[in-house]
Design brief:
Elements lengths: L1 H11 L2 H8 L4 H11 L2 H7 L1 E3 L5 H8 L5 E3 L4 H11 L9 E4 L12 H5 L4 H16 L5 E2 L23 H16 L12 E5 L18 H8 L1 H8 L4 E4 L3 E2 L2 E2 L4 H11 L5 E3 L7 H5 L5 H10 L5 E2 L3 H11 L5 H17 L12 H8 L2 H14 L1 E5 L11 E6 L25 H9 L3 E6 L12 H9 L3 E7 L20 H9 L5 E6 L7 H6 L2 E4 L7 H10 L63 E8 L3 E2 L5 E9 L5 E11 L10 E10 L4 E8 L6 E2 L5 E2 L3 E10 L2 E10 L1
Parallel strand pairs: 1-2, 1-10, 2-3, 3-4, 5-6, 6-9, 12-13, 12-14, 14-15, 15-16, 18-26
Antiparallel strand pairs: 7-8, 11-16, 17-19, 19-22, 20-21, 20-25, 23-24, 25-26
The structure holds 1-deoxynojirimycin.
């Protein structure tokens, strides 16, 4: 009786009064108090995410409270308009606004794979922080990022969205991005909810073809693919998104194993899980369910809380409850997870708190953001080749021919997922170089060829420009939209006639610097063999042109290292640094009865962790404070790093460990730590890595995380194939 009276009282209150009524209570209680007022339709509405609406039906469903969140709607004006509709609903439950803020919102940073090449988790975190600040000032309170899928197949276009092939590096970057997006705490006006995606194993789609199936051992799943997701959970990630793929025959959106057993069970995750776009009804096409109703049933039972744009939940859950196939308790659990986040974000206290026009304008024009994008772009670039120290360029009074389809391009430099980014903000390579070198250099320009076209009529002018110049800088690669969702490629060479263009220019005998842009490792052997210098710039974002110019003229000494292996041949894929010795160990190309190819070596073109600097680093004096340790103990491995060259620079020092004999065969090397160290010319620093039991552990046959006593090899180097120091130690 008492409870009924209270409920009636609450219903009689206005929305603002309702908020005030509960404001002093802990969030759990506030969630419960709202839940008690909700009809089943309103509850199901919270599990429903829709895209932008323009029609009356869409508007009405928001007004009825049948929508919990929207995607793509962003910018203060549009968000306010939609939120105002939700405020006309019976219970005035605010909407969430989710958007793909992947590498910047207004200010576009390098694509995530490029940022990962910096191996600079502080800079990556700062980049996510800025993206969140701009997005949160523009009405967005939820980003569908970070993508933490380990990706070992560069044919898969979405490799661009992640941190590359390595589990350890990927986990560190996952953590940095979550902390960056979510800021000090959810509820601050500059914090957005992050979303760890795509759960799980999406990076391992068969044949590198997007949306495909994944067949994977549990061991591989736990050892390689799940840890970055766990790192995101540990960093407090607010939400999860499931993936488009099947995992061993079960679509991820309906995977009880992933969503209930692992995520909400073993990891005790309290946030909520959203499907990917339409992936609930896509289960019909997979042949996993008969119809939309069956799809909704399987998804909700297996722990998928929010339906992204399938409409399967709004259409079917009520009926499924009536048929007693789905319990209200199960729906309540999902609703509570969502309401909790809405309270945490402060949306119940002020549904318009992310809608301040002045804050939006300030965030979009903050010069600090532009500067950070420049620094991130500089740090992301990897110098792959620098014959005869051609770079940095000391070019006074010279003529330099700028050639290639990406020299004047702007849009391409932003890569895929550009949120609210605009082309006008991008500095092209041409603009960056001409600005940097000013009147010291005479630049000429010829496009030469288009990226995807077969037309070679531009070659002659380009060759002529090269002949008349002292040297050439070429910008070649993919279009910005050639990597990303649904952009798998079977041939990852340079598209169109770009290699021929390069060969024609090279034939002039002039020194050629090639700047390559792409969202994935490309195969470019002729260029790798014959260019004088190669800078891999990924898609470097708005400040790409300035960053490239700074690297070329030496204002910035490149420090990026590859976060993913670059194969020699597409046939080697998947090729990673941490493969196995096998029972037929490979020693050299051409030796029979070894685990090998008869037509190409096993080695990559460029190994994981590789990247040059303008200076040289010497590794010396490795000292282990002990040669054996107990499981509760640690070993400190120290060494001296010296800058023996002429330029100040940064080196990413990498620690790899090999477990010599184990009950599950171990890779020859696993990255277990790294540091980015800045040194002046002639300067030395002592670097220490601490090895603990965690770094020696792996998933055993029972999928327990264990270490096993025995001999381990510790390797320290500047790349996975360039080990400078090594020593054995024992785990007792
Ligand atoms: C589909 C993509 O797979 C996912 O990553 C993205 O967040 C959603 N679409 C929403 O745009």
């Amino acid at each position: 009786m008492y409870r009924i009276k209270i409920s009636l009282l609450i219903i009689a209150l206005t929305g603002t009064q309702l908020i005030a009524y509960a404001q002093h209570k802990p969030i759990n209680q506030r969630v419960d108090s709202v839940l008690r007022l909700m009809t089943l339709d309103e509850k199901i509405g919270q599990l429903n995410q829709i895209g932008p609406v323009s029609d009356t039906a869409g508007v009405n469903s928001i007004k009825r409270g049948y929508v919990g969140s929207m995607l793509v709607v962003h910018g203060v004006k549009d968000v306010k308009q939609m939120q105002a509709l939700a405020m006309q609903s019976r219970l005035k439950i605010p909407l969430l606004f989710g958007y793909d803020v992947i590498h910047g919102y207004k200010t576009i940073f390098p694509v995530p794979l490029g940022e990962s090449a910096s191996w600079d988790t502080a800079a990556i975190r700062a980049s996510a922080r800025i993206a969140a600040t701009e997005a949160a000032a523009s009405g967005v309170n939820w980003t569908f990022a970070p993508m933490v899928d380990i990706a070992r197949d560069p044919r898969w276009g979405r490799i661009v969205e992640g941190a590359g092939e390595d589990t350890y590096l990927g986990s560190q970057i996952a953590k940095a991005r979550v902390l960056g997006f979510q800021g000090k705490k959810l509820g601050d006006v500059d914090a957005v909810m992050a979303c760890a995606k795509h759960f799980a194993a999406y990076g391992a789609v068969s044949a590198g073809r997007d949306y495909n199936d994944v067949e994977m051992s549990d061991h591989q799943l736990w050892e390689t693919y799940l840890p970055p997701f766990k790192a995101a959970v540990d960093a407090g990630v607010a939400t999860f998104m499931s993936s488009f793929n099947t995992l061993n025959g079960v679509p991820a959106a309906a995977s009880n194993y992933l969503q209930r057993d692992i995520l909400k069970g073993k990891w005790n995750y309290k946030g909520f899980v959203i499907s990917d776009c339409g992936s609930i009804t896509q289960m019909i096409s997979w042949g996993y369910v008969a119809d939309e109703k069956d799809a909704a049933l399987k998804a909700i039972l297996s722990g998928c809380d929010v339906d992204m744009t399938s409409n399967a939940y709004v259409h079917n859950l009520k009926q499924l409850v009536a048929e007693k196939k789905v319990s209200v308790a199960l729906i309540d659990d999902a609703v509570k997870r969502i309401l909790y986040k809405k309270f945490e974000l402060g949306l119940f206290d002020d549904p318009y708190r992310f809608c301040d026009e002045k804050r939006q304008a300030d965030a979009w024009n903050d010069p600090v953001h532009k500067d950070a994008a420049l620094q991130m772009a500089e740090r992301s670039m990897v110098l792959l080749k620098n014959q005869n120290h051609l770079l940095p360029l000391h070019a006074h009074g010279q003529t330099i021919a700028l050639i290639g389809p990406l020299i004047k391009s702007k849009h391409d430099l932003q890569g895929s997922w550009i949120a609210a980014g605009v082309e006008e903000r991008v500095l092209s390579v041409y603009d960056g170089l001409t600005k940097k070198f000013g009147n010291n250099v005479h630049f000429t320009y010829a496009k030469g060829a288009d990226i995807k076209e077969n037309d070679t009529t531009g070659f002659a002018t380009a060759v002529q420009a090269a002949r008349q110049a002292d040297m050439v800088i070429m910008a070649l690669g993919e279009n910005g939209d050639m990597s990303g969702e649904s952009t798998s490629r079977a041939d990852i060479g340079l598209p169109g006639r770009q290699v021929e263009l390069f060969n024609a220019i090279k034939a002039t005998g002039k020194p050629v610097v090639v700047v390559l842009m792409a969202g994935r490792p490309l195969v470019f052997n002729e260029i790798a063999d014959n260019a004088d210098a190669i800078l891999y710039a990924w898609f470097p974002g708005d400040e790409g042109g300035a960053a490239i110019a700074n690297v070329i003229n030496g204002d910035y000494n490149p420090s990026g290292k590859l976060p993913v292996t670059f194969p020699l041949s597409v046939g080697q894929i998947p090729l990673t640094y941490n493969g196995y010795q096998t029972g037929h160990p490979y020693t050299a190309f051409g030796v029979p009865f070894q685990s090998r190819y008869t037509d190409v070596p096993n080695t990559p073109r460029y190994a994981f962790g590789y990247g040059l600097s303008y200076t040289d680093f010497k590794y010396s004096n490795l000292i282990l404070d002990k040669t054996s340790m107990a499981k509760v103990g640690v070993i400190n491995a120290s060494f001296t790093l010296t800058n023996t060259g002429k330029y100040a620079g940064e080196e990413v020092v990498q620690l790899y460990i090999n477990d010599a004999i184990a009950s599950v065969v171990q890779p020859m090397k696993k990255l277990k730590d790294f540091k980015k160290v800045a040194l002046q010319p002639g300067e030395s620093k002592t670097i220490t890595f601490t090895i603990d039991n965690e770094k020696l552990s792996f998933y055993n046959q029972q999928l327990q995380w264990v270490s096993e006593p025995g001999i381990f090899k510790l390797m320290i180097g500047s790349a996975s194939d360039d080990i400078m120091l090594q020593s054995d130690f024992e785990l007792k």
